[in-house]
Amino acid sequence: MDANLRKSLFRILDSIKKITINKETPTIKYEKNKCKKCEYKEMCLEDFTNPIDL
Questions:
Q1: Measured between alpha carbons, how far is 27 from 13 in angstroms, rounded to an integer?
Q2: What is the pTM (predicted TM-score) of this model?
């Protein structure tokens, strides 16, 4: 593991801490092609006020 990969890992871990400790959920970026194939799309779309047509 090099220094850049280590820094990237700690940035990701900090993001996870922010989500779990502060209860801050990240915003969802909807991409029609990716969302069509995603197994979690029903969970995301129920929270989205203007769902996209999949």
A1: 17
A2: 0.46
